[in-house]
## 1
Amino acid sequence: MPDQTPPVIPGPRDLTLRPEHAGKRPSVTVLAGPTAVGKGTVSQYIRQHYPQVCLSVSATTRSPRPDEINGVHYWFVSDEEFNELIAEGKMLEWAEVHGMNKYGTRRDTVERAIAKGRHVLLEIDLQGARQVRQSMPEALFVFLAPPSWEELVRRLVGRGTESEAEQQRRLETAKLELAAEPEFDAVIVNDTVGQAAARLVDIMQLPAQQR
Ligand code: 5GP
């Protein structure tokens, strides 16, 4: 059995806040990064090991995978329902990811959590992160990076969920996505999932009662 105890990383780490943070601890953290870097795995780990983190549940038009639960991993909605949410201005951000399905974050659920004093984590793609940067510049933007390009290729090919043509397409996208790293406030290298998650929670600097 692998060790299930989250590693302890000394913290809180130094983080240079931007003027938009106005010297305050941000209440929204955005985790983005290139395709196949393991954002989903890190957020899954956080869901299991750090219940004090309020992980935003996105809406998506893609079908649930066998182990996914509606309302826990995603809100699975139809294309019509998703378009309605957009038309009604209910999305804080949304994007069509890999030209296939739509994914988005509802503004009201994030705002309700903030009002309750929670620190919300959004695990979203780069297009979504850029939209949040526009509408919520005071959020904290964290880039999840692969240990190396070779490792990113290995992870994408190794998971075997995409055809070869699709893998090539995603690797081209990943190159563009990697170039976005300087737009972020902090970079976490996803070497092992437990360490990456611990670093992220450390960077979020949760209020003492939520640690
Ligand atoms: P998956 O289908 O593997 O769960 O997720 C595919 C991609 O969609 C991942 O890159 C993930 O970060 C992104 N994603 C998940 N939820 C959202 C969301 O609410 N907004 C945006 N923009 N991207 C999302």
## 2
Amino acid sequence: MLSVAILAAGKGTRMESSLPKVLHKISGKSLLQRVIDSCVELKPDQIFVIAGHKSNEVQESIPNDKKINVVIQEPQSGTGHAIQVLCREVKNHAGTLLILNGDVPLIRPSTLKRLLYFHDSKNADVSLVTTKKTNPHGYGRVFLKGDFIERIVEEKDCNDLERENPLINAGVYCFNWGKLSKIINTLHSNNNQKEIYLTDTISLLENSLSLEVEDNGELQGINNRIQLSECEESIQNSIKEKHMLNGVTFINKASCSVSEEAEIGKDVIIEANTHIRGNTKINSHCIIGPNSFIENSNVGLNCKISNSTVYDSQIMDYIKIGPYSHIRPQSKISSQSKIGNFVEIKNSQLGEESKVNHLSYIGDSIIGKSTNIGAGTITANFDGQKKYQTKIGKNSSIGANTVFVAPINLGESVTTGAGSVITKDSKDNSLAISRTKQVNIENWGKKKS
Ligand code: UD1
Ligand code: MG
């Protein structure tokens, strides 16, 4: 039987944050969620998340899964205390207990599997992942005696000589739960932090073994924002490298970010300062950026999006967007269309080969194929209480600075006069115009003087 305990009760004092440490995110996913995801791959029988500081927030962040149980540790008197609480709350201590710190988010399922295998094959009381760090500052130092771990000394309890030891405890342990529960309540907090350390169990158990792995970044613990940013960089590098090997060009890799879920086709060029977030798919031969942000959207083939923002929308093929366009959620832009400078589109559908080139707001609208929306056109979709729809048929020609007071329905091949405020529906092939006729008063300048 395999049980997992994830330690997530601490405040994370060194983060200097009102958010519990394990809820900080890297590449869009919380530290805790990342650790849970890695553990789920092991198909354990049960997972316990030990929550304490702001436990409601931590609990709410956990997906509904009947295998995941939250155990409350109150107060938070150290990692050893967290497991004392677990052993008190859960009565059956059979099998293996894998314990992970909730702040080691990059740990790979393959490393966890290796640890489980190592632990079983050596019939250990406890096995833990260790690594040699060039800068071991902040970590517990692991001292070996022959094949066994003799003890772990926390950074704050190390003397100068002990501090030199580069072998550190990664915070990932496999215990024989039966043996652990026999000694867990003998721990004390006689140390410089006045905390009950889980690491003190090691010298109380007989067969304590170290699985030393190479430090490739996955064992980085997060205690402050510098380490948070290092982990973000490390994840981002591996995501971008994967895309580059699949045929994506990054013009200035360091200034771009890509979510783990994003899919990017071949021969896509990602220009500087561009961010591809959430569940986004960019198809082949697009040029995205510079300075663009695309979230939860689908971008078709051969599109060019520069200096623009796109949320929750569908952009079909051969479309040009920007510079400085904002495509808001639930928009669908059909193939060969063009959205130009300073244009905002929200919850609207634009037919094929249509153009909204300059300074417009198109909201809650359905616009037909091959329609040209003149510069400065606005859909007035809101009466202060409700939103209304604007419909414009295909092949229409909308004059500059037209205001559509929705709800409004225009037929196909309709023309509107520049500067018109359109309040009435109009039929196919009509001209809709509403503006005062120009009056020229002659000699106006002379009269004034
Ligand atoms: C811990 C280890 C250290 C190891 C390092 C690896 C101990 C005593 N030290 O130090 O040997 O090198 O991790 O990253 O275990 N937590 C609780 N309840 C508490 C206190 C903490 O659940 O009462 C949780 C925290 O939320 C965190 C984890 O335990 O996720 C580790 O706590 P942290 O304070 O970060 O320990 P470190 O100082 O990093
Ligand atoms: Mg830590």
